[in-house]
Design a protein that fits this description.
- There is one protein chain.
- The chain is α/β, with parallel strands linked by helices.
- The protein folds into two domains: 10-208, Aldolase class I (TIM Barrel, Alpha-Beta Barrel); 211-289, no CATH class.
- 44% of the residues lie in helices and 14% in strands.
- The chain is built from 14 helices and ten strands.
- The chain has helices spanning 4-9, 26-34, 49-62, 82-91, 105-113, 125-134, 157-167, 181-189, 199-202, 211-219, 242-254, 260-267, 271-276, 300-324, and strands at 15-17, 39-42, 67-73, 96-101, 117-122, 138-142, 172-175, 195-197, 225-228, 236-239.
- It has an eight-stranded parallel sheet with strand order 1-8-7-6-5-4-3-2.
- The model has no long low-confidence stretch (mean pLDDT 97).
- Bound molecules: flavin mononucleotide.
- InterPro entries: Aldolase_TIM (IPR013785), NMO (IPR004136).
- Keywords: Flavoprotein, FMN, Oxidoreductase.
- This is NAD(P)H-dependent flavin oxidoreductase.
- GO terms for molecular function: oxidoreductase activity.
């Protein structure tokens, strides 16, 4: 399937694996890229730019296909060493970067000067237009369904993607709630030229996370996620567990007075305990409503192959049948 997204990134299928903290490591990124999608290493999971350089090298040994790196701009006072990470990306010969979070403006020119294609992930048309004006090559339009940070405007993808088609000139992929060939065809119908998946890629054989995490996604339904940190305007969609229930109780009790310190125990530094040790109640971890559509743990190759078969069947048989009837 050829779209502006496959052309932009030099990939076979219009499927991207979104950056995921403590999930987007070399093994997963390489597996997605080997299967014809765009695999993405998450920069901030690497403690230093040197660690990121090593992770890029590791992925390169596992695949000769294009890979990308996610750079998430966090709303924190003591910013990570972003110039160092950008240098590691450029020096490592990576040609695709997924930016997310705060305004990527400062880094877009630097990346583009090094011939790196930038896809910015955001959750509103307002931010998409701003990123387009900054010169990004593509957008990842992330609906309210998504795992991770859906923003504060709560626009689901049926509306958001159609609005993106009305407003944007650069190509965009649909992100949030995407799981299979049906998702891809729906996304294409709404104007996207591909899709980005997070949660679905965690439940794959190559995802380098504890088996408990994969089983938790399989066990979850579409009603099992919760939104946390809304009072802090840093909303995150997470899988419900004991820590999330405790966090929500605190939000209820403290109301508008809540501070990050009040909930730090439930959110700060919990990812390694969950993703690596499989302590499923250690804290809040991002998970999309799409968990309700995930029932197995295929390889990335099996997953992507069957998505493309289903998408092609839908377009050429079911939809063509309707159109010609
Ligand atoms: C466990 C997990 C961790 C994530 N970490 C990040 C991250 O560090 N940076 C980022 O830009 N997005 C992050 N995301 C968001 C994904 O890249 C992607 O946009 C999102 O999962 C799409 O929604 P879906 O889960 O419904 O597919 C994360 C998502 C999950 C599920």
């Amino acid at each position: 399937m050829k779209t502006r997204i496959t052309e932009l990134f030099g990939i076979k299928h219009p499927i991207i694996q979104g950056g995921m903290h403590f999930v987007g490591l070399a093994e997963l990124a390489a597996a997605v890229s080997n299967a014809g999608g765009l695999g993405i290493i998450t920069a901030l999971t690497q403690r230093t730019p040197d660690d990121l350089s090593r992770e890029i090298e590791k992925a390169r040994k596992l695949t000769d296909k294009p890979i990308g790196v996610n750079l998430t701009f966090l709303p924190v006072v003591n910013a990570p060493d972003y110039p160092g990470y950008v240098k590691a990306i450029i020096d490592g010969g990576v040609k695709a970067v997924e930016t997310a979070g705060n305004n990527p403006g400062k880094w877009v020119d630097m990346l583009k000067a090094a011939d790196v294609k930038v896809i910015h992930k955001c959750t509103t048309i307002r931010h998409s237009l701003k990123a387009q004006a900054l010169g990004v090559d593509a957008l990842s339009v992330d609906g309210f369904e998504c795992g991770g940070h859906p923003g504060e405007d709560d626009i689901p993808n049926f509306i958001l993607l159609a609005r993106a088609e009305e407003e944007l000139k650069v190509p965009f992929v649909a992100s949030g709630g995407m799981a299979d060939g049906r998702s891809l065809v729906a996304a294409l119908a709404l104007g996207a030229e591909g899709m980005n998946m997070g949660t679905r890629f965690i439940a794959t054989k190559e995802a380098p996370v504890h088996e408990n995490v994969k089983q938790a996604i399989l066990a979850a339904s579409e009603t099992d996620t919760r939104l946390v940190m809304r009072p802090l305007r840093n909303t995150e969609r997470v899988l419900r567990n004991a820590a999330v229930d405790r966090l929500l109780e605190k939000e209820k009790a403290l109301g508008a007075n809540i501070k990050f310190e009040d909930i730090a125990a439930e959110v700060a530094g919990v990812y390694p305990r969950i993703m690596q040790n499989g302590e499923m109640d250690a804290g809040a971890w991002s998970c999309g409503m799409v968990a309700g559509l995930i029932n197995d743990i295929p390889t990335c190759q099996e997953l992507i192959d069957r998505i493309m078969v289903q998408a092609n069947d839908l377009i050429n048989k079911r939809l063509a049948g309707f159109a010609n009837s």
